[in-house]
Amino acid sequence: MAKKLLKLTTLLSVLLLLLMLTGCPPKVVYYQLTVTTDGNGHVDKDPEPEEKGYLKGTAVELTAVADEGWEFEKWVIDEDVVTDNPYTITMDSDKTVKAVFEEEQPTDKYTLTITKTGEGTVDPAVGAHEYDKDTEVVLTATPAEGWDFSKWVVGGTDVFENPTSVVMTSNKAANAVFVEEEPPVGPFPKITNLSLTTEDFMVLQPCTENLEIRFQVAVSGPESALVEAEYKVIHVSSGEFVAVEIPEDNWGAPWTYKISNNFLKDNIGNPIPGGKYDITVGATNTEGNFSSETISFYVKYELSSLEDAWIVDSEDSQIKVVEGKCVVGEGDPATIGATIFFDSKITVRIYLVETSDTATLDEMLTKGVKIQEKAFIADSAVTEDVEIELPDLKPLMDADTEYNLLVLLFTPECGALGCVSCGIEDWTLLDCDLVEDTVPSIECLPCTCPDPCDPCFVGYNPGIRINNVLSTTPALFDITLTIGEEVIESGFTFLELADALEVRFWIEEGTLDATPSGDTDLYWTVVTPTGVELDATCTILIDFEEPEAEIVIENCCVNEGITETTFSVTFTDNVGLKRGKISATGANVVLPDGKTAGTWFALSGTETTVEGTITGITGEYTLIVETEDISCFKSINEKECGINTPPM
């Protein structure tokens, strides 16, 4: 019995030891994840839960998937809001998650994305373009030389019309497809020697010149017989044309053909439309191959007119308009702008004319100098703004002489020998007299009453005079004054003279952030109305400070037996000392030779020390020091001495 009890006790001991060494088995914990939705959509969970839920510590990725027409807005996790999607949640407790979806708001704009395949241009250009809802957009494809348009691919659908259009009811994509042209297969007719044998300009106004346009050409079929040939005369802007058959007898060798004004009147229009005309010669051979060549000419039917002319405003132009005058100075050559009506070719001429020679057009053309000429060409009757750059005008002008610019429209074909005004269709003088700019200068001006000791002195008003200027209107100048770190752009006073402008600035105590003292540099910069930049540094003496006197008395204590003591006075001033006076009450003052107590004596420099003796001390006394500087500022300093006064 005892043995069994011992065995049982031993077994229990072993079990207890094992339990102590290994501990209790861990408890398995699961948490529940509850997911709901608000709106149209669902939530995917990765991983899906086990039958008991999610094991403690499991990371679960939640992905919100919105239905069509809806979009995910946020997660509501217990009381927290999260917008990340997907979102990972760690199961460390029971969780409640709500996925919130909201309806997509209808958009008012859509994007059209344009691309292309092959070589060519597209309109709209390649790229993304935003349009309002329901906008109809026209798509146009233009092939490059050697390429053909094949089709548009709009939203995956082939569209062979060009141009075509799309209506923006959603985002759309359109691709223009270009393909290379097939190389031509000969033989082809030959068109050679196509050229004009007359001038290329038929003039019907303001004179009649070149009423027949002649051209020559040879059409042939060296490798295959021709079946037909013709030339067309086409008015380019209107598209009106007439076709003329080239007879078989004229094939092979060059022949000359003519186009008269009557031919155009009968076949193109009456009156004859002015502008550009193309002569296109074409031929077809027995293989059906076609060749063509084109040459052009112009017809002037209507008189040209000059509606306006002006100087083009430019910061760098050598012409600046100042109070109604055109001032010619330094800078880039000026440009003349003009509004002109013309129907084919017109030449704009510009003359520089002295104002005294502008009585008649003939006088201006005879005495003026032609300084520029430029021709303009149009396919049809147009009114347009043109620009003509002028040469440098300064070498062409004399000082103190006024000029004008004459702008005229001219047809050289109508210019007759000995007739200075023939061929001129319209003209105008620019409404601005030209004068050569002067050479301005700048000089410093002292204050109107520079001496503060003078009764006329009321303050500091230094300034500058801008000399030799064409205008003295202050508002036309750009003026700045720099004193120390402070830049001043306003508050100036002005005096307008005949050919100069005086500018002054009042400086008083407190006018500037930092009160100037002593010799002060004033840096002036000026831009004149014609853009000339000037600058000057002017130095003036400015003084707002009183002089000072420091009194030192060797023994200021009046005790029994002390009847005299020495003293010193140090005079100082920021700009210069003028005079001083030392006196006393209750005692006597003895000064060095040349100086008398109670009388002004001369001082100089910015610091001077005067020593003396106080005698006749019997009780309390006061030493009085008066000082005056070169600006006539005065100061009084006093020192009282008495019984038990400590030494100073």
UniProtKB/TrEMBL annotation:
It comes from the Bacteria. Residues 31-104, 110-180 form the Bacterial repeat domain. This is Bacterial repeat domain-containing protein. The lineage of its organism: Bacteria, Thermotogati, Thermotogota, Thermotogae, Kosmotogales.
